[in-house]
Amino acid sequence: MPRYALCWLEYRPCDDRAYKDAVVDRIRTLWIQPGEDVVGFEIRDALSRLFHHVPGEGSTGDAGTLYVGTSDQAPVADRIPAGELEKLGDEGFLLKEVRERKGGSSLVLTSKTRRGLVYGVFYLVSMLQRGIPLEGISLHEEPAFPLRIINHWDNLDGTIERGYAGKSIFFHRNKVVKGLHRIRDYARLLASVGINGVVLNNVNVRNKALRLITEEYLPSVRRIADVFRDYGIRVYLSVNFMSPVYVGGLPSADPFDPSVKKWWAEVVARIYEYVPDFGGFLVKADSEFNPGPHSYGRSQADGANLLAEALAPHGGLLIWRAFVYNIQDWRDRKTDRARAAYDIFSPLDGRFADNVLLQIKNGPMDFQVREPVSPLFGGMERTNQMVEFQITQEYTGQQIDLCYLVPMWKEVLEFDTHARGEGSTVRRVVDGSLFGRPHGGCAGVANVGSDYNWTGHWLAQANLYGYGRLTWNPDLSPEEIAREWCLRTLTRDGEAVERLVDILLASWPVYEKYTTPLGLGWMVNPGHHYGPSPEGYEYSFWGTYHRADNRAIGVDRSSRGTGFTTQYRSPWRELYDDPATCPEELILFFHRLPYTYTLKDGRTLIQYYYDSHFEGAEEVKRLREEWLKLRKHVSPRVFREVLERFDRQVKNAVEWRDVINTYFYRKTGIPDEEGRTLY
C-alpha cells in the first residue's frame, strides 16, 4: 500500500477508448531533448499509466511525434517559426500541432528554459487527464506573476505552526529527513501547478532553525534544493533578524554596524556555495515578539536593505513581511491594528532596495474569513510587493471544516485600488506592471503535512491546487479551477464533478455564515483558533476587538473613528466611510453599529446575525447530504474520510450557531423574530 496519495498526479487509466486511441495515434514517437531526464520521465510515466502506452523514441520526421525541447533545439526550431519562439518568456511554453514535410502532423512542446519545459509537460499531462483533444492545438502559456511561492511554517522538530495535516515533510527531530522520495513527489505536485519557489521553514525562526544558515545544516539544505531544482523550484529560507547575535555571537544586529554587514555577507556567500540558485530570505521582524530593526531605532527599510545588500551580488531576493504591529492595551480605543502596516510602511516607499519585496497579507488583520483588501497595495508605488494568502485554514476551519478559498483570493487579486485610476488592480500591483517594478508575486502559507492525503481534509487539496493555478493564470475562474481539480483527482463522471464543484463553491459562503459574517472576524478560541469564543480575544493585547456591549458592536474605523478608511484611495475611501454605501459584507469591519441598524434587505443587524447562523448550520448539513450522493463516484477511502470531516463540521457549525446567537441574545435581550431556540 502506498504511503501517501499523489493527489492530482494519481493518473487513473483513461476509460474513454476513442480518446485513448486518438492520443496513442498522435504520440506514436517521442523525442526528448538530451539531458532532460525529468520531463522525459514525466511524459512517459503519464502516457504509460493513463493509456498503457509506450511510444517509440527518436526524431524521424514522421507524423505522430511529440517533440519536447527548448527553443534552441533543431527539431523545435525547424518546426516553429522564429517569430513565435521569440515571444516566449523565461517560464512560458508553447504547445502546437505542426505539419511534417513527409505529410501528416506532429506536436511540439517548447520553451526558452528547462523550467518552462517542466511546466509545459505538466500542462500537457493535465490536458490528457481531462480528455482535452490535441488536434489543432496551438497554445502559448505564460505565468502571470514572476514569483509564485509557497511559505512553509515548518519547525525543525517536525511540528508545523498552524499545520492541520500531520508533521513536516522536511524536518524530523531537528534534522532534515533522510528519505527524499516524498519531497520529490511534493516538488512534482507544486511544479504541476506552476509554483517556482518554496520557503522551507517557519517565519518564527527559533531554536535549531536559527542554524539552518550554518555549516551544520547547509549540506542538508542542499539535498532538498537539489530535488526542487529538478522541477524548476528555488529554495528560500526564513531567517531571524537577530541571527548575528544568536548565531554569530556579535554584540549587535544593528543594520548600520559594519561588522553586522560583514557577517551577513559571509553567511550569504557560504549559502550560495552550497545552493548556487538559492532564492533568498524571508523575514518576519518587529512582529509578535520577533525582534527587528526597531530595536536599534532603525526603520523597516534599513533592516530589509541590510540583508538585501548581502544577497544582491548573488541574485538573491529579500522578502520582508509587512505583518508589523504593536501589541496594545485593550482599554486603548485610539490604536487600531488594522492601520499598522500602512502607517509603518507607506512613509518608507522608495527606500527599499530593488531586490526587496514587501510581502503583504491580503487583508489588514490576519487571514479572517472576510476582510477588506489591505490599503497598502495602493499605497507604495516605488516598492516591490507580493500578496500573502493563507492556504492553511487557520481561521477558516483548519481542514476539518470545508472552505474552498480560491474565490476569496480571486476577489483580492481583482480588487481595484484606484492607485493610478480605474483598473489599478491588486493583480497589476503584485505582478509589477502597474508601477513598473522589477519584482512581484504571490506567497501562500502551505497547508501540507505528512498525512496520507497531504492536507488533512481530502477536499482541502483543492486550495493547494487552486493557489498554484490562480497564481499562474488569474483569469481562470474559481469554478474552472475546482472542475480541473475534481476531474484530475476524484472522478471523471460529469454529474459527480458538477456536484463536487457546487460543494466547493458553496463552502466559503457557508463557513462565513455560521462564523463571523459582515466582516466582524475573530470570535475564535484563543491560541488554537478553532471553534467559537465570542470574547476570547476581547481583553487581550492583540488588537482584535469587536467591543460589543448591550447596544452596539464593532470598531469605528471611519474618518470619525480610527481613520482607517482614509488609508484607501477614492472612491473606496468614501464608500467605506459611510455605512449607507459600505459593502454590507464588510460593514462590521468598518463601523460600530447598533443591533437595531437596518440593513438593505430590511432586517436588523441582530436579526441578520441570527438568521445567518441558523442558515449556515443547515447549509452544512445540506453539503453533507450532497456528499452522500457521491459514494459510488469516489474511492471508498476518500468517501469515508470526507464524510467524517463533514460530521465534525456539522457539529462545529451547530456550536458556532448556538454560542454566537446565545451570546448576542444574552447581551441585548432581543429575541429572534422567528422564535427559534436561543439559550
Automatic annotation (TrEMBL):
<feature type="active site" description="Proton acceptor">
    <location>
        <position position="366"/>
    </location>
</feature>
<feature type="active site" description="Proton acceptor">
    <location>
        <position position="394"/>
    </location>
</feature>
<keyword id="KW-0858">Xylan degradation</keyword>
<feature type="domain" description="Alpha glucuronidase N-terminal">
    <location>
        <begin position="7"/>
        <end position="123"/>
    </location>
</feature>
<dbReference type="GO" id="GO:0046559">
    <property type="term" value="F:alpha-glucuronidase activity"/>
</dbReference>
<dbReference type="InterPro" id="IPR029018">
    <property type="entry name" value="Hex-like_dom2"/>
</dbReference>
<keyword id="KW-0326">Glycosidase</keyword>
<dbReference type="InterPro" id="IPR037054">
    <property type="entry name" value="A-glucoronidase_C_sf"/>
</dbReference>
<feature type="domain" description="Glycosyl hydrolase family 67 catalytic">
    <location>
        <begin position="128"/>
        <end position="454"/>
    </location>
</feature>
<comment type="similarity">
    <text>Belongs to the glycosyl hydrolase 67 family.</text>
</comment>
<dbReference type="InterPro" id="IPR017853">
    <property type="entry name" value="GH"/>
</dbReference>
<keyword id="KW-0378">Hydrolase</keyword>
<dbReference type="GO" id="GO:0005576">
    <property type="term" value="C:extracellular region"/>
</dbReference>
<dbReference type="InterPro" id="IPR011100">
    <property type="entry name" value="Glyco_hydro_67_cat"/>
</dbReference>
<dbReference type="Pfam" id="PF07488">
    <property type="entry name" value="Glyco_hydro_67M"/>
</dbReference>
<protein>
    <recommendedName>
        <fullName>Xylan alpha-1,2-glucuronidase</fullName>
        <ecNumber>3.2.1.131</ecNumber>
    </recommendedName>
</protein>
<dbReference type="InterPro" id="IPR011395">
    <property type="entry name" value="Glyco_hydro_67_aGlcAse"/>
</dbReference>
<dbReference type="GO" id="GO:0033939">
    <property type="term" value="F:xylan alpha-1,2-glucuronosidase activity"/>
</dbReference>
<dbReference type="Pfam" id="PF07477">
    <property type="entry name" value="Glyco_hydro_67C"/>
</dbReference>
<dbReference type="InterPro" id="IPR011099">
    <property type="entry name" value="Glyco_hydro_67_C"/>
</dbReference>
<dbReference type="Pfam" id="PF03648">
    <property type="entry name" value="Glyco_hydro_67N"/>
</dbReference>
<feature type="active site" description="Proton donor">
    <location>
        <position position="288"/>
    </location>
</feature>
<feature type="domain" description="Glycosyl hydrolase family 67 C-terminal">
    <location>
        <begin position="455"/>
        <end position="676"/>
    </location>
</feature>
<comment type="subunit">
    <text>Homodimer.</text>
</comment>
<dbReference type="InterPro" id="IPR005154">
    <property type="entry name" value="Glyco_hydro_67_aGlcAse_N"/>
</dbReference>
<keyword id="KW-0624">Polysaccharide degradation</keyword>
<dbReference type="GO" id="GO:2000886">
    <property type="term" value="P:glucuronoxylan catabolic process"/>
</dbReference>
<keyword id="KW-0119">Carbohydrate metabolism</keyword>
